[in-house]
Automatic annotation (TrEMBL):
<feature type="transmembrane region" description="Helical">
    <location>
        <begin position="292"/>
        <end position="313"/>
    </location>
</feature>
<dbReference type="InterPro" id="IPR003593">
    <property type="entry name" value="AAA+_ATPase"/>
</dbReference>
<feature type="transmembrane region" description="Helical">
    <location>
        <begin position="251"/>
        <end position="272"/>
    </location>
</feature>
<feature type="transmembrane region" description="Helical">
    <location>
        <begin position="148"/>
        <end position="166"/>
    </location>
</feature>
<keyword id="KW-0812">Transmembrane</keyword>
<feature type="domain" description="ABC transmembrane type-1">
    <location>
        <begin position="37"/>
        <end position="315"/>
    </location>
</feature>
<dbReference type="InterPro" id="IPR003439">
    <property type="entry name" value="ABC_transporter-like_ATP-bd"/>
</dbReference>
<dbReference type="Pfam" id="PF00005">
    <property type="entry name" value="ABC_tran"/>
</dbReference>
<dbReference type="InterPro" id="IPR011527">
    <property type="entry name" value="ABC1_TM_dom"/>
</dbReference>
<dbReference type="GO" id="GO:0005524">
    <property type="term" value="F:ATP binding"/>
</dbReference>
<keyword id="KW-0547">Nucleotide-binding</keyword>
<dbReference type="InterPro" id="IPR036640">
    <property type="entry name" value="ABC1_TM_sf"/>
</dbReference>
<feature type="transmembrane region" description="Helical">
    <location>
        <begin position="172"/>
        <end position="191"/>
    </location>
</feature>
<feature type="domain" description="ABC transporter">
    <location>
        <begin position="352"/>
        <end position="586"/>
    </location>
</feature>
<dbReference type="Pfam" id="PF00664">
    <property type="entry name" value="ABC_membrane"/>
</dbReference>
<keyword id="KW-0067">ATP-binding</keyword>
<keyword id="KW-1133">Transmembrane helix</keyword>
Length: 603
């Protein structure tokens, strides 16, 4: 086993991917060459487009003068073709850049979320996180990369067009400018509102994702409580808010381009009337008027596109804000190159020692108030106590999901605060309450996180967890598919599979959190045997729910209100610990009615 020094560990809040500076900006910077190429291609296409009215004006002059038409026609055709080719290549390059930005942002965001500090992640709504990773990032393509490049090209087209119109006839340009300025101001106001509406819409979409995820994650509970309609109405209400805000965004977007079109149509009417009188008065040629009107038409598309692009950019900025916010989530301290080699089978366990450990989830509200006890390097140590005593919290501190506020936790004599996280989590296996199984085969579940595990590792883990016979009886064996949450397996089988999955990793210490809460008597007996076998191989620290599992333990730690009350064997504690006797009595009384947990609701 090699370990990295704390200095090599990445401090919380900083990571390989930038958080504070804005993830999207950093990712976009990586793809700037492609965006620049797209802009250059777009500008070349714009130049080809802008030259067309001049050449068509020349063609009209040539027709009027009766001179040769072959060269002017050839120029116009070449420009048309060049314009079309440049535009399509530009669209492809831009699309490629957009997809690459979306891909890089998604993968970086997933890394940030997977590497997040457990407490920081716990404060987020999972559906909203999902919406940010999947939906908000998809907006980046159209609303960020494409619109930025599009705006640059369209703006160049507009500026170029206006310059050429100025050369052709400044008076007509003045008439055009008055009409366009009025509609431009309206468009700017609309764009501002659009940004606000888009921000709201993105936030409501996040709420919707969070609510749908909440209902789906607890579908059985929803059905058991006959709350389908309630959830339907609740989600429907958020969906209605999403619809309303989406409609508002669509309405504002829809008003943007007509606002400009009205200005253009008014300009066109004014230019034709003014231009016709200037041609009649001899101060302008018919060819110049034709070219001017063509420029006006040429301006329509880039102007409208530019305004649409600004609208999209506003929507994109709302998404970028949400993405950057998620990317800034606090990170666990991970070494740059995690290193851990699994223990060989039979290598034995590691002693776990809590020395005056203090911890509170909230400041001023201590959950653990100086916990001290030792779990020897082999055998089963059970932790019992009333509900809310802090049993699960103890295990989570040992996994370093949270950092202790005071005291030390030693693993094999080493302070776990000094162990790199991958090493610590390689040494300690944690089977939490309702350990989720993953959609896929039994085999995939067992190999989860340890693709290098051998067939021997798997068989030994299955044997220790008492699952060998169960798997042998399945027609498809380890290739049997299990659904989300392990649908298709009994509660006991699910739990033992979760334990086997941890055992494949060959941990030195196995933490079982209320691993027998779901089991019937037969499954529980099987599991008790398994735990005994496992305890012969490594340290087992088990938050026990039932007296029957505690009776076997080599050592029982009785926890109450965040403090160790007593430590001993079952027989010793029955003699010496009033609290333990009381817990046992409650369990016995309940057990006569039905097999119930060993803990009581806090006192
Ligand atoms: N993420 C959290 N944020 C804030 N408080 C928490 C959090 N998790 C647990 N607590 C609180 O910490 C206390 C100890 O919780 P813990 O889950 O460790 O108790 P426990 O002994 O395992 O209880 P049980 O037997 O009911 O599972 C409880 O008062 C609980 O409400």
């Amino acid at each position: 086993m090699t370990t990295a020094s704390p200095a090599e560990q990445r401090p919380a809040g900083t990571a390989a991917s930038p958080a504070g500076g804005g993830l999207v900006r950093a990712v976009t910077r990586r793809h700037l060459p492609k965006i620049h190429l797209a802009v250059v291609l777009g500008l070349a296409a714009a130049a080809a487009g802008l030259a067309q009215p001049v050449l068509i004006g020349d063609l009209i002059d040539a027709v009027g003068a009766g001179s040769g038409l072959v060269a002017p026609i050839a120029f116009v055709v070449v420009l048309f073709l060049a314009d079309a080719a440049l535009t399509s290549v530009q669209a492809y390059v831009m699309g490629h850049a957009g997809e690459s930005i979306v891909y890089d942002t998604r993968t970086a965001l997933v890394d940030r979320v997977l590497g997040a500090d457990v407490a920081a992640f716990g404060k987020l709504r999972q559906g909203d996180v999902f919406a940010r990773i999947v939906t908000d990032t998809s907006i980046l393509k159209s609303a960020w990369s494409q619109s930025v490049a599009g705006i640059v090209v369209d703006a160049a087209m507009v500026v170029g067009g206006i310059a050429l119109m100025l050369v052709l006839d400044p008076v007509l340009l003045g008439v055009t400018a008055v009409c366009l300025t009025a509609s431009g101001l309206v468009a700017l106001v609309l764009a501002k509102r659009l940004r606000k509406a888009a921000q709201q819409s993105r936030a409501i979409t996040g709420d919707l994702g969070a609510d749908v995820q909440r209902a789906l994650a607890a579908l059985s509970t929803v059905k058991a409580c006959r709350a389908e309609r309630f959830e339907g109405y609740r989600i429907g209400a958020v969906a209605l808010r999403a619809r309303r805000s989406g409609v508002r965004v669509s309405a504002l977007s829809a008003m943007l381009s007509p606002a400009m079109s009205v200005g253009l149509q008014a300009s066109l009417a004014a230019v034709i009337v003014t231009g016709a009188s200037r041609v009649a008065g001899g101060s302008m040629t018919a060819a110049d008027l034709t070219a001017f009107v063509m420029y006006l038409f040429y301006l329509v598309s880039p102007l409208v596109m530019m305004l649409l692009g600004i609208g999209q950019l506003q929507q994109g900025r709302a998404a970028i804000g949400r993405i950057d916010e998620l990317a800034a989530i606090e990170q666990e301290p991970m070494p740059a190159a995690p290193s851990y080699a699994a223990q060989p089978w039979g290598a034995g366990g590691m002693a776990v020692e809590f020395q005056g450990v203090r911890f509170g989830y909230e400041p001023g509200e201590p959950t653990l108030r100086g916990v001290s006890f030792t779990a020897p390097s082999q055998g089963l140590t059970a932790i019992v106590g009333p509900s809310g005593a802090g049993k699960t919290t103890l295990l989570q501190l040992l996994m370093r999901f949270h950092e202790a506020d005071g005291g030390r936790i030693l693993l094999g004599g080493e302070n776990i605060a000094r162990l790199p996280l991958p090493v610590l989590r390689g040494l300690v296996g944690y089977v939490q309450q309702d350990s989720p199984l993953l959609r896929g085969t039994l085999h995939e579940n067992l190999l989860y996180g340890v693709p290098s595990a051998t067939a021997d590792d798997i068989h030994r883990a299955l044997w220790l967890a008492g699952l060998e016979d169960v798997v042998r009886r399945l027609p498809r064996g380890l290739s049997t598919e299990i659904g989300d949450s392990g649908l298709g397996l009994s509660g006991g089988q699910r739990q033992r599979l979760a334990i086997a999955r941890m055992l494949v990793r060959r941990p030195a210490v196995l933490l079982l959190d209320e691993a027998t809460s779901n089991l019937d008597s037969e499954s529980e007996l099987l599991l008790r045997r398994s735990v005994r076998s496992i305890a012969a191989e490594c340290t087992v620290l088990s938050v026990a729910h039932r007296m029957s599992t505690v009776v076997d333990a080599d050592r029982i730690v009785v926890l109450e209100r965040g403090m160790v009350h007593d430590v001993g064997t079952h027989a010793e504690l029955l003699r010496t610990s009033p609290l333990y006797r009381r817990l046992a009595a409650i369990q016995r009384r309940d057990g006569e009615q039905h097999a119930a947990p060993v803990h009581t609701e806090g006192r």
